[in-house]
Each structure stands twice: as C-alpha cells, then as structure tokens.
Design brief:
The structure is a homodimer. Chain A is of the alpha/beta class. Chain A has a domain of 172 residues: Carbamate kinase. In chain A, the strands form 5 sheets. The first copy, chain A, has an 8-stranded mixed beta sheet with strand order 3-6-2-1-9-11-12-10, with helices on both faces. Chain A starts with a strand and ends in a 6-residue tail after the last helix. Chains A and B meet through α1, α2 and α3 of A and α1, α2 and α3 of B.
Chain lengths: 407, 407
C-alpha cells in the first residue's frame, strides 16, 4: 500500500468550513487505498494574532516563549482536523511535534530538524488511522519546544516523508503547481508536469513563492518525490518535483523567474589591488545586508576597476551610505546606484549540455532593445539585471524565444 | 529558602493587562526571597470558546482530541506570563504538563495525576528562575495529552507542591478566603484564618465554590499546606487549609454551609423487607442520578417503612418518574416529593469531642419555628433539610447561636 504524506497550509485550514473540506478530501484520498500522514499549519491569521499578543507584552519577545506560544496554533488545527475526519467516519489521530519526537536543534524560531521517530506513526497507520501531525514544530534534545520558522510546515511534511520512506509528499497550496513563469506577467505561462530538485531550488530562491526552499533542499537530500497541488481543485495533478533522472523529457529551459526587489550599487574607479572585494563587501555584511549578484569588471582607465553588486531594495539606502564612506576610504572615483532595476533569470538543467543558451537569451533581449546591466551565471541558471520598466517585456520575450508555452 | 507554589485561575489571567498584573505580583513576591513555581489556567473564556469550536465540527467530540485542543489554552498563558515576567526583569521559564512529566492515567477529560518529575523544575529554580507550569494538563504513560477536567489547575498546583515538597501552595482566586458562612446571606460571616483539610472537604462538597474538592483531597493526602487568597488584593492573607494539629485554636464549629440545589423524594409505606433500599435506589443510580442524603424511618403502620432521599434539582423530574414506577412495583402507598427544600450544614472538627452540638443546633432552629424534614450526621458535620423559605433565617440563627462572628 502506498504511503503518502500530505501538507495543508494555513489558508486551506483557515476556518471550520475549510477544515471540513480538507477532511473530505483526505477521506476520499484514503478510500483510494493509501496510508496517509497529514501535516498541517496553524489556521491562517492565528500566528500573526499571537505574535501581536506577544509584542504587546514583551518589547522583544523571548524566542523560547514565542515558540511555546506559536506551537499552540498547529495544535488547535490537528485536534480540529482529527475531529472532522472522525465525524466523517474516517479514523484519525493527532500528534504534536513533541509527541512524534520531531527532534530539532535548539535555535528557537528557526530550528532545523535532526530526526523524527517514525515508530509511533507507523503503528497508527497499521491500525488504519490517518495520522495528523502538527507542522512547523518540534522539540530539542532538552525537551524545549521549537519552531522551524515561517513555512516550516512544508519542511515538516518532507521530513516526515523522508523518515517514513513515503512514496510521495504532497504540498497542498493555493496554486495548482509550478509554472514556467509568472502567469500574471505572461498569460501563456504553462504549468510544468515535473521539474528537478535543482531547478526548483533555483526558482524558489528567485522568488517563486510556491514552496519553501528548505523543504526542497530536504526533499532533494532524502530523494523524496514532492508534489505541489491546489487544495481548491477537486482532482489536482500539480507539479512533481523529483530527481532529474525521473523526468522523462527534460526541457532545455524549465522556467523564467524574476525578482522585483533588487537594487544595484556600483563603485566606479577603484584602484585594482588585492583584497578590494573584501574591503567593499565586509562593511555591507557587517550591517547585516545580504548581497545577491556581484560583478567586478575592468575599468576604462588603467589600474582601476569597477565593482557592482545588488541588494534587497529595503537595504538600498543603508548600503548606499556605507558605500559612500567606502568610496572615500578607498579613494575610488564615484558611487553609482539604481533601485529601479529587476533581475530576470532563465533556469534549466538542459543548459549544462546545451551550448549557446546565454547567447540565445542575450539575443532575445537585444531584439527588444533591452540593455543588460549585469550578468551572473551558474550551471543551470543565467540571470540578468535590467531596467525595471522592461520586466514584463523581457519575461514574455524569453518565454516565447525558448518556446516555454509549448509542452 | 522557602519554596512556594502559586496558582492563578482563568479570571486572574483573563487579559493581557491582568497577566501583567499577576506578573508584577509574582515579581514582588519573589523579591521577598522565595523560590516560586506558578501554575496557571487558560485565559477565561478560552476553554468555552474551544469547546464550542469542537462541537461545531464533531457531534460528540473525541475526548482525546478535545484534550489536545483544550491544553493549548494554558500553553498560551504560560508563554505570555513568562514573557510578562521577563519584561519586568524577572527571569522565568514556561513548561507544559508534558514537559515536566505530569503523568496521569488515561481518562481523557478527567484524568488523575499519578506522578510528577520535579527534577527539571528544581534545576530551573536553582538557576533563580520563576517556573511557570501549565495547569489542568498532563500526559499518560503512552504520551497522549490528557486534561484533569474543570478546576484541574488547583489540583496541578497542589500536586506540584507535593512533588516539590513545597512549603505552601497558594491558590489565588476572586475571593479572599474561606468564610464561616456565605457572606451574601450572613453579613457577619467571618473569614477564617485557618481550617482543617477535613472541614474544608465537607465544606467544599457542600457548595463552597472556593476550591476544587480534589485539590483539597490531594493536599490532605500529601499534607501540603494550602492557602486560598485573593488575586485582587495587594497583600492578602487568605485562609490556610492545613492539618488539624497545625491549627492553634480549633473552634468547635468552623462554618455553616448550605445547598440550594436539593430536592427531596420519599416513598411512603414500603413493605419493610431486606433489600428495599437497594430496590429503590438502584434504578435511580442506573439513570446516573446522584443521591445525596438518605433516611429510612419506621412508618406509623406496622411492617411498613418510609424511605426518603435527596437529589440535585436538575434530576428531580427524572427521579420522580422512576420512583413512581418503583412505587407500583413494590406496592408502596405513595410517592411524596418536594423540590422547594434546602440543606443547611454545620461543619466542625470540634464536634468530635463536644457532645450536644446537634441538640444545640436543633434548639436554635426550633426557636425560629423551622421544621426539620431530614437529618444526616457524620463525624464532623450535621446536615438538615428544611423548607427553602427558611434558608437565610436558619443560616443566620445558627451563625449567631454558635458565635461564629467572633474570632
């Protein structure tokens, strides 16, 4: 008998009516003949409500106590969902993270799962029960309650699937799968049947908000087939995220992602000496600003170089001020900055074996007179920074140029 | 250093502001130089709200899942109270029932505590922390979450005090102690400084809603000094419930209690044969009706007896119908019933060594022309059933007759 782990997020269990709908779905699925473990989040809104309470009572709420508080959210959901299943005649039992020994490290608010004891869950499955497990939470080796941080319910589901050696981990969400690009920008965007872990990782980090990146990493590490589906559609197929080898027909390019939160900073005319990159970036890191793309190029003037990088737009002003001071220290010529840029990326495992993808990409952008300001490449991804006004045009041109609308 | 266990009920922690007030109280107490363990209930209203949710989702909510649901209530309180304490600079840490191994039997919704592991709590106390423990909850030996039933937070506090060998267990509530009688009836009612476990048990079972009877039993069994105090008053003294030997000046009579929920049923002219009491009461018990006082008396007619008992007024109609049918079966003469009666009781350990208390009681009632319908006596209690219209008069006359208004 197949063993499936399903995960339903906060919106899917956001009201009693929705919990009842999810229960009906689970019951139907179970009757199809599978063993089922279900991981759930807190009802939507609950987590924010509790964070607000905590902040009213403590200026900087204790991370440990915050975890004690927040984990009640999923505990409510597992109880109500189990009751809803029982009401439908579907035998079910709930477990908190502590009860099934989801052991994490001790980093409250962003703990990482170290191990799960599948023994108790297996016994209940063998009794024919649906096992409902609280997502997002665990305990550390000292028995303190921990949380995995926002989106941690996905990770719980994948970790459960890995621990139980499940056949598939299904993440039910409000979208029905992973698309070749943002359908809001390119209506011809196509839902992918399958995509590799590696590609999904590149897409998740680039802003496709379908899955938490950590859950994909986990799935990749333990080779858990992961499926994203809609909890709103009746018989969903979704998108399967799996090992490259399991994908029958690998497209050269899988998808195009974009990121609107970029801002670009450049230091012009820096004396080209060893350690320049470190001298420029270390004050930025010390201010807790994360740097995304980095490009160092030779300047027109002899012995000088230009150094450019991107940061999140929220950090733009802070980074700019730091860079001005660095500019003086290093006797560079000038700081240039621009927060009206976006990043557009092409992702595809096929890139590794197909030459000329970058050329094809730059050609497609050139055809539309879109100026490329920065370029970064990895094995399965090419990213460019462009003026934000070209975002939609660039995404649509590339989607068309690489034939992503065709199966 | 003294070790004190304090318990704050749902009303005392019913809002963020009240939680902050309780935190201030705890901090002040701690600064007085004691180790402190604090047990708390769910914020008032939360438990009822969750029961309502559960009933909307399952016709007869699963007792196991109900416990998983309800225990989130105290878990929220322990986190918020710990945060409030930390905000005041008072180091604190929260624990759920499971975390401090409050092991109970497996009767969901009304579990009984079997043991508590005081080890973890002691370590935190030795670190100078206030330890905040969720009341009302535990886990059974299989790791299932259990609750002790309504009022179980008192029991948790007493059990913690017993396990930790605490110097005193303080129950903070909305009254400032145990009174010689209901102050609403007799304004001269006096707050007792101390009362014995045995007396408190008799008074609790008779309707003084100050303490849960199980917590007094527990305190008595483990000889935990128990103090009832008001959480509303600044420097409360309250009433100490302790061993008889610890009470310096034991009054003959400690208090007068009353119960307005009584209804009386009599079977008149039953043939006086062995097994009559069983034949009359077993159909009542089978209908889950609890019987309080029982009196069997000789009838005026030869070979016949009269049998009378009291039940809760809610059960009056049901019990009457059953008794009518029993009347036919046993060929008794008639059923007499009256739900306009009350029970008034005199409680006092001194009774054991003082003769004539009953006579004095009956004399005081006679003086007011109050007819006594039933009498029941125990070692430290005399109860009478009278017409409900005499309730206030009887309580005041007895309070005066035994000089209870004087220290």
């Amino acid at each position: 008998m197949a063993l499936i782990v399903q995960k339903y997020g906060g919106t899917s269990v956001g009201s009693l009516a929705r919990i009842q709908t999810v229960a009906q779905k689970i019951k139907t699925f179970k009757e199809g003949g599978a063993q089922l473990v279900v991981s759930v989040s807190a009802m939507s809104g609950e987590t924010s409500r509790m964070i607000k309470l905590a902040k009213e009572i403590q200026d900087v709420p204790s991370l440990r106590e915050m975890d004690v508080l927040l984990t009640t959210g999923e505990q409510v959901t597992i109880a109500l969902l189990s009751m809803a299943l029982q009401q439908l005649g579907c035998d079910a039992i709930s477990y908190t993270g502590a009860q099934v020994q989801i052991i994490t490290d001790s980093k409250h608010g962003k703990a990482r799962i170290k191990s799960i004891d599948g023994h108790r869950i297996r016994s209940r499955l063998d009794e024919g029960k649906v096992v409902v497990v609280a997502g997002f939470q665990g305990i550390d080796e000292f028995g303190h309650i921990t949380t995995l941080g926002r989106g941690g319910s996905d990770t719980t589901a994948v970790a459960l699937a890995a621990a139980l050696n499940a056949d598939e981990c299904q993440i039910y969400t409000d979208v029905d799968g992973v698309y070749t690009t943002d359908p809001n920008i390119e209506p011809k965007a196509r839902k992918m049947r399958s995509v590799s872990y590696e590609e999904m990782l590149e897409m998740a980090s680039l802003g496709s908000k379908v899955l938490q990146i950590r859950s994909v990493e986990f799935a990749s590490k333990y080779q858990v087939p992961l499926r994203v589906l809609s909890s709103m559609i009746d018989k969903p197929i979704g998108t399967l995220i799996t090992r490259e080898e399991n994908i029958m027909e690998q497209a050269i390019i899988s998808g195009i992602t974009h990121n609107k939160d970029e801002a670009k900073l450049s230091l012009i005319g820096v004396p080209d000496k060893p350690g320049i990159a470190y001298k420029i970036l270390s004050p930025i890191s010390e201010a807790n600003i994360e740097v995304d793309m980095i490009v160092q190029s030779v300047s027109a003037r002899e012995g000088l170089t230009n150094f450019a990088f991107t940061v999140h737009r929220n950090d733009f002003n802070k980074a700019q001020a730091i860079l001005q001071s660095t500019c003086k220290k290093l006797s560079a010529i000038a700081v240039q900055s621009d927060d009206k840029v976006v990043k557009v990326s092409l992702v595809g495992i096929g890139m590794r074996s197909h030459a000329g993808i970058a050329t094809q990409m730059f050609g497609a952008l050139d055809k539309e007179n879109i100026n490329i300001q920065m370029i970064a490449t990895s094995e399965i991804k090419i990213s460019v920074v462009i003026d934000e006004k070209y975002l939609e045009l660039a995404v649509r041109s590339l989607h068309n140029a690489f034939g992503l609308d065709k199966e």
